[in-house]
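Sequence in, structure out. Go.
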Amino acid sequence: RLSTLRKADRLVVMDRGEIVEVGPHDELMAREGAYWRLYQAQLRHVDDDEDDSAPAPAAPADHSVHPAGNA
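Output:
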């Protein structure tokens, strides 16, 4: 979760088994490097999920059809 990352004293960012960045959230965000890109991607993913979870508008009821189908 993003809130957990912000609270950490030190984050270690790895890419293909190599450490590419180390530091607190604010410092890594200011660098706009690997951590920043991961964080931004996660934010976009969370925003997309929130958009998907919004209920779709209900279709108008068609009372001319019996609820059980053509019985």
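Check: DSSP finds three helices and two strands in the chain. The helical segments are 2-7, 25-31, 34-53.
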